[in-house]
Amino acid sequence: MGFISGMFIGIAIGILLIVAFARQESTRSKSRTDLAKTIAKFARMTVEDSRKLLPPNFYPPWLNWLNTQLDKIWPFVDEAASELIRNNVEPILEQYRPVILSSLTFSKLTLGNVAPQFTGISIIEEDSGPNGITMEFDMQWDGTPNIVLDIKTKVGVVLPVQVKNIGFTGVFRLIFKPLVNEFPAFGAVCFSLREKKALDFTLKVIGGDISSLPGISDAIEETIRDAIEDSITWPVRKIIPIIPGDYSNLELKPVGTLDVKLVQAKNLANKDLIGKSDPYAVVFVRPLRDKTKTSKTIGNQLNPIWNEHFEFIIEDVSTQHLTIRIFDDEGIQAAELIGCAQVSLKELEPGKVKDVWLKLVKDLEIQRDNKYRGEVHLELLYCPHGFENTLKSPFSADYTLTTFEKTLKSGTSDAEDDDISVSSSSRPSSRPSSRPSSRSSSRRKSTVIVRGVLSVTVVSAEDLPVVDFMGKADPFVVLSLKKSEKKVKTRVVNETLNPVWNQTFDFVVEDGLHDMLIVELWDHDTFGKEKMGKVILTLTKVILEGEYAETFILDDAKSGKINLHLRWTAQHKYREP
User: Fold this and answer.
1) Mean pLDDT lowest for which of 167-176, 281-290, 463-472?
2) What CDD domains does this protein map onto (predicted)?
């Protein structure tokens, strides 16, 4: 009896210990999960979030002292800066004035009695150089300015529009350069808005409601933002001479060109309830209307292929970025953002084409949304000015010319030279001429295109996905060019997930820079076929390198790679406009 009682007591104690241990482990697991979430939230915190948690009285004493002094001198700064802003910004407002307005000028401009606050100061040693000092000031301003714009419409109506409730957060850069041995030890000061983190304001018609004028409010707001971007936003900078001298070397100057090929996107987030999104891309280095490129819209497609080429002027390769935004075209309604991505230009090697896939995010500034929105495929080529003759660029007109064609080109005038360029959707093929010309002269003005023979060797594939019930597949490959109806296919290799073909096919390519090679891998069945994956390639790399072999990961497949060898034989020619 005692043995049975002891056994039951032991079992009960054992069960209690197991339950207690399981509960303890569950509690520890939950605690670890909560800690991991907290650490992740702290990791995603921005500087602005930290400053919201940390009140100004916790700032360093010297920063509080600086803000106190700024408060004292602000009335004098207001008086001097207001006139400076008026003189500099009014011409730019006129430059970006909407077509629905006949004039756009300031009638009142004061910055109010609330001074901005510095929230941080840093010395940028890598940008200072041996002959200058570069400083950056983090600034926040919730101003009460009195800014009134006199707006005159095409029909003669004059509207006084007040700019109110300005909220600004950003980083200003000051460059003291060059350093000299005279007081105050530097020759000039350059200032620029290095980073515009947030800019909010409201527009109000004095004595009326601006919403009663459709389109006016959006047009004015866009004009103001463009004026700020084009007047003081980096790399634009204003130069204030302190000591008389020539400071032209400090002025903004183009340093190179960036060629961008927008190839394709895949697995885009669907923004439509019925059907699929109609994506298009907006690409820019500086977000100005006349410097922004827009692709064509691909209807009802989450895996669009654009294969479009754009060119941008670069002023500061060390700080500028290429930004791409993918939108869903909603027709007459406002387009909806699918996602955006950014690549730093300093990551590009001059003269080398960089092939990149960029993951799309909701916001480039605060990346708190981890939702997958798709990816975009770009080819990027940065060419610094002065190095054009040493770089082998497939986007360059001279690269596409044979010796005979270069001879023809050298015999043309400067005006005719401009007319010989690579065929591109973003460039005109020729300029109209007022004088008559012969057939040979017309031929010299023709657009040069990259024509040639593309040889593709389908070598093998590896680790293909299982599609048959027996755990194997009967794969074959179909090759085609996007601009051609020609299709070729390899033989079928039975019952394998690692087939070897070693078959070569030739394609005559009429326009290499704007065509694409489509590689599709299929499983052969008695009653049909099943797609196993695909690869889409531009011809830029093979045109540039002449020949290369590479392993490509299959798209639209759980696994699998395909090994290809590509060779290009050029047969350039002219195309009549």
Assistant:
1) 463-472
2) C2, SMP_SYT
pTM of the model: 0.69
| Residue 437 pLDDT exceeds 90 | no
- Exposed (0-12), middle (13-18) or buried (19+): which is 84, by Cβ within 10 Å? exposed
Adjacent-strand bridge partners of 520: 478, 534
Select from 368, 369, 391 the least CA-distant residue to 381.
391
**Would strands 186-205 and 279-284 be described as parallel, antiparallel, or unpaired?**
unpaired
Q: Tell me the average pLDDT of the chain.
A: 79
HSE of 105, CA atoms in CB hemisphere, 13 A: 6
Angle of CA points 485, 299, 530, to nearest 5°: 55
Distance CA 133, CA 242 (A): 15
Q: pLDDT class for 352, splitting at 50, 70, 90? A: confident
Secondary structure letter of residue 571 according to DSSP:
-
Residue 266 in 3-state DSSP? strand
* Residue-wise pLDDT tens digits, 231-259: 788 888 888 899 998 888 888 889 999 99
- The residue with greater pLDDT, 271 or 313, is 313
Band (pLDDT 50/70/90 cuts) for residue 341 is very high
Q: Where are the alpha helices (DSSP H) in 431-475?
A: 439-444
- pLDDT in the model for residue 396: 53
The rounded distance, in Å, linking the Cα atoms of 153 and 159 is 8
Q: For residue 243, what are its two tokens?
A: 């000591």
Q: How many helices (H) and strands (E) does the chain have?
A: 9, 25
- Euclidean distance between CA atoms 372 and 360, whole angstroms: 7
pLDDT of residue 203: 81
Question: Is residue 233 within 8 Å of 171, Cβ to Cβ?
Answer: no
Q: Are 487 and 517 in contact (CB under 8 A)?
A: no
The backbone torsions φ and ψ at residue 107, rounded to the nearest 5 degrees and listed phi first, read: -105, -30
**Helix (H) or strand (E) run with residue 30 in it:** helix 2-43
Q: Which tokens go with 407?
A: 């001879």
Which residues have CB under 8 Å from 290's CB, separation 6+? none
In the numeric block, which tokens belong to residue 136? 């950056």
φ/ψ bin of 244: left (φ > 0), alpha (ψ from -120 to 50), beta (otherwise):
beta
CA distance 202 to 194: 24
Task: Please report which helix (H) or strand (E) contains residue 402, including its range.
Answer: none
**158-204 per-position pLDDT tens digit:** 778 888 888 888 898 999 999 989 888 899 999 898 888 788 888 88
Is the distance from CB of 278 to CB of 238 less than 8 angstroms?
no
Q: DSSP states of 554-577 as a string?
A: PBSSSS-EEEEEEEEEE--EEE--
